[in-house]
Design goal:
Blueprint (H helix, E strand, L loop, with lengths): L23 E9 L2 E8 L10 E8 L13 H10 L6 H13 L4 E6 L7 E6 L4 E6 L5 H15 L4
Antiparallel strand pairs: 1-2, 1-3, 4-5, 5-6
Length: 159
């Protein structure tokens, strides 16, 4: 299954208010038929992740003049993702898997709801012709921040 994820809308889906540079916001991906829809929410308008969401994350509206962070190349991200398999960092592996889907390195093939290990994403890497199984481990909001900070430290190409 291949799908396009729309870009950040800069508008709160709940209130219709434009999100300001530097403001924290939440984004969620939800399946609507054969499409995946992205919804962005201000902190005040965030109702929490829907039970049926594919994924969600917290971020900040970029400044129009902010320099983009030069993330590590896709191959480095993929190697790091593979290295997390079988570790106790399933939540980080899940978040990184979503990032790799967003960057179109991995493709979501299937969601297995009743897998023995819990809800599982089946992801395919066309570059290496490999299929991965990733347990959907939704981190707590505090853990999301920790994961974002750790990934930023580890994967910042400048550092």
């Amino acid at each position: 299954m291949d799908f396009e994820i729309q870009r950040f809308t800069r508008v709160c889906a709940a209130t219709g208010r434009e999100l300001a540079p530097g403001e924290a916001f939440y984004s969620v991906l939800v399946a609507q038929g054969s499409e995946v829809k992205r919804l962005d929410y201000s902190i005040q308008g965030w109702p929490g992740p829907p039970e049926t969401c594919i994924g969600w994350w917290k971020s900040r509206v970029p400044s129009p003049h902010a320099n983009k962070v030069p993330w590590a190349p896709n191959e480095v991200l993929l190697q790091f993702f593979e290295g997390l398999e079988g570790t106790d960092r399933e939540d980080m592996r899940y978040v990184l898997a979503l990032l790799l889907v967003r960057r179109r390195v991995l493709r979501l093939e299937e969601e297995v709801k009743n897998a023995p290990e819990g809800e599982t994403l089946v992801l395919y890497c066309p570059r290496h012709d490999v299929t991965y199984r990733v347990r959907a481990t939704t981190p707590t909001p505090t853990r999301v921040t920790e994961i974002q900070e750790e990934l930023a430290r580890l994967l910042d190409a400048k550092g």
